[in-house]
Specification:
One of its GO terms (molecular function) is oxidoreductase activity, acting on paired donors, with incorporation or reduction of molecular oxygen. This is Cytochrome P450. Keywords: Heme, Iron, Metal-binding, Monooxygenase, Oxidoreductase. The chain has helices at 23-28, 30-41, 60-69, 81-87, 96-106, 112-131, 141-158, 166-184, 198-226, 234-240, 251-281, 284-298, 312-324, 356-360, 403-418; strands at residues 44-49, 52-57, 74-76, 138-140, 331-335, 340-341, 344-345, 351-354, 422-424, 432-434, 438-440, 445-449. It is α+β, with helices and mostly antiparallel strands. It has a domain at 78-330 and 395-449: Cytochrome p450, CATH 1.10.630. The strands form 4 sheets. It has a 5-stranded mixed β-sheet, with helices on both faces. It starts with 22 loop residues before the first helix and ends with a strand.
């Protein structure tokens, strides 16, 4: 069932509890909660997270308006103490002039021309992984993909000489993500920073590890630059960036942007690849079409950056995996003076939310929404959804800066591995854990088979 647009003034929303509002249902299963709001109450649904006023919008055009109006009549939502512990004041968190300054400094490092220079590293790391696989082996797909994208992220962000720091950075990031998800979905979201729960202590410890490791790498890069050595990695480009006044990013800013880029280059891509393998395992026709394209285009060789555009079905597999399992499953912004969506005024201070998970699984925009159908993205296919209905990287002026990097990485890695092996994950569905990104809630075992 999917709902129609509720007439203005007719919305009542779900039942709310005193003080906590709809927090219990949201905390129990936020993905199901937003689907229930859409299906049970319409496309514009008031709800409450604690004492705060909230609205969920579920139409693509309304989501597009919301995303396009951030930094105009909407401001990014205050994400809370835990998010600031991890992300600091990076471009994801910053607002106003400070956000514009940081975006201008960071964006050149992830433009398509720069992503091209990282493609060889992506392919090299993927090829090294697959050379260690054998027919009949059993693997944990999520662990393998996380390890692979972690190596790619460290090498492209910090350079090959930082490879020894992969393990502590990855372990600390995993802890931080888990605790962030728990904080966001629980009553601790409303606790003042000075209240130290066990989860918050674990988060602090993980962030301390990240600070130490990344500070060490930044100092190494600074020393190399002082000695006249230029490196071809993202951190070196951030070190060289200057704003309109000629000022560089401070060391704290370098730390914050490094964390942000690491999450974009590692966390989101590893989960996208994990879901892609799990979906392909249950779709033999799509798997055969992927194999045919890789054989025809690559002819047995490794892919290069130029092949990204030559592998349309490979890109469609990634796109469909992102539709069904968008890493960023929830987007929000707070209304300011003069805010409106769909011609309807939004009172200042109201938090407006849209859920890529819910929108991507709405049959009005995507026929058979629960089905894995990469062919729905074929050029000229009937019934294609408006691009505003597919928002795994957000949209508008604050769209994810690393979207191109993530898409190229996922497609090239998929091409390298799929030309050598099928990954059979079996028929058992994998539950989802909505943390900082949308993660598998358990290991994803798979049997390796050569085509």
């Amino acid at each position: 069932m999917t709902a129609t647009l509720t007439p203005p003034g007719a919305e009542r929303g779900p039942r709310r509890w005193p003080l906590v509002g709809n927090l219990p249902a949201f905390a129990r299963d936020p993905l199901a909660f937003f689907e229930s709001l859409r299906d049970g109450h319409g496309d514009w649904v008031p709800w409450a997270l604690g004492p705060k006023r909230n609205v969920l919008v579920s139409r693509p055009e309304h989501a597009g308006e919301l995303l396009g109006a951030v930094e105009k009549t909407f401001r990014p939502m205050e994400l809370g103490w835990a998010f600031h512990q991890l992300l600091g004041d990076g471009v994801v968190v910053a607002t106003g002039e400070e956000w514009r300054r940081k975006r201008a400094l960071v964006q050149p490092a992830v433009r398509p021309r720069q992503v091209r220079s990282y493609a060889a590293t992506m392919v090299e790391c993927a090829d090294a992984l697959v050379r260690g696989w054998s027919d009949g082996d059993r693997i944990d797909v999520h662990r393998e993909m996380a390890g692979l994208t972690q190596r790619i992220a460290v090498r492209t962000l910090f350079g090959s000489d930082a490879a020894g720091r992969e393990a502590p950075i990855s372990a600390a990031m995993a802890t931080a993500q888990r605790e962030l998800g728990a904080e966001f979905r629980g009553v601790t979201l409303f606790l003042p920073p000075w209240v130290q729960t066990p989860g918050r202590r674990r988060l602090r410890q993980a962030v301390a590890v990240l600070d130490r490791e990344i500070d060490h790498v930044i100092r190494e890069h600074e020393a190399a630059r002082a000695g006249g050595t230029e490196r071809d990695d993202l951190l070196s480009r951030l070190l060289a960036a200057r704003d309109d006044t000629g000022a560089p990013l401070t060391r704290k800013e370098l730390r914050d942007e490094s964390i942000t880029l690491y999450i974009g280059g590692h966390e989101t891509t590893s989960t996208t690849l994990t879901w892609a393998w799990q979906l392909l395992s249950g779709a033999p026709a799509a798997r055969d079409r992927l194999t045919e394209e890789l054989d025809r285009v690559l002819g047995g060789r490794l892919p290069a950056y130029e092949d990204y555009e030559r592998l349309p079905f490979t890109r469609q597999v990634v796109k469909e995996a992102l539709r069904l399992y968008p890493p960023v499953w929830l987007i929000s912004a707070v209304a300011g003076d003069g805010a409106a969506i769909g011609g309807r005024a939004v009172p200042a201070g109201t938090a407006v939310w849209t859920s890529p998970w819910s929108m991507h699984r709405d049959g009005r925009w995507f026929p058979e929404p629960e089905a894995f159908r990469p062919e729905r993205w074929d050029a000229g296919a009937e019934g294609q959804a408006d691009e505003q209905a597919w928002i795994p990287f957000g949209g508008g002026p604050r769209a994810c800066l690393g979207a191109r990097f993530a898409l190229v990485e996922a497609a090239l890695v998929l091409a390298v591995l799929a030309r050598r092996f099928h990954l059979d994950t079996g028929p058992e569905p994998v539950p989802v854990f909505p943390g900082l990104t949308l993660q598998p809630a358990r290991p994803v075992p798979a049997l390796l088979r050569q085509p």
